[in-house]
Amino acid sequence: MNLSKFNVIAAAILSMGLAACTTTKAPETNGAAASAVAQQSDADRAAAEAAAKANADAARTAAAAEAARLESQKLAGAQSDAATRANDLAASLGMKTFYFGYDDANLQSDVINSLKAHAFYLSNNSGARIQVNGHADERGTREYNMALGERRAKAVAAFLTGNGARASQLEVVSYGEEKPAVAGEGEESWAKNRRVELDYTAGNP
Predict the structure, then answer these.
(1) What are the CA-CA distances from residue 4 to residues 16, 82, 203 (Å)?
(2) Pairing relation of β-strands 195-202 and 97-99?
(3) SS3 content of the chain, % helix, strand, coil (to 5)
């Protein structure tokens, strides 16, 4: 065999060897790439799950904060309403003199809320006692004015018991014209004397 043929055969053998090596190593290279892709996919999935959890936690925290804010606002509103009602009740209980028209024993519309407040207070304070004092102006006879003062006092007492007060808490008294609030003649004075006064003898609010 001459040198030229030997070189051709050697080159062929070398080429087959390289091809064999390439064929053998290819599966290892493909497996490493697949493993790298799988690892990247797992990392991406873990990152996505962590982000979703963080978003859910943030949403829950925000919802809890908003619920707390609304509850605080609701509580503040309720406290404000309660304070307003308490102030209104105190103002109504502060009114203890109720006026009447001439020769009249009918309650005026502007005294109803205050009388309701007194009835409510009495119904919730069984130890409270009131003397309901009826008065009249000086016109008319003494006997007539005593009876008129009594009718006025009884009208107030009936309203109180009709709205929760106990009859045992009330004492009706008429002074007629004997105890004027304002001395003198004329409508301005007489209007101040046509009245019923509530006198708390026990449990004054």
Answers:
(1) 19, 115, 135
(2) antiparallel
(3) 70, 10, 20
21, pLDDT greater than 50: no
Its pTM stands at 0.61
The residue assigned the tokens 């009709």 is 162
Say how many residues make up the chain.
205
Alpha-carbon span 134 to 154, nearest angstrom = 8
Reported as type and span, the H/E element at residue 170 is strand 170-176
Which segments of the chain are extended strands (E)? Answer: 97-99, 129-135, 170-176, 195-202
Helix-helix angle 142-162:112-124, to 10 degrees? 60
pLDDT band at 54 (very low <50, low <70, confident <90, very high): confident
Domain 96-202: assigned CATH number? 3.30.1330.60
Q: Which two tokens stand for residue 23?
A: 């064929």
Q: Which residue has the tokens 């001439």?
A: 102
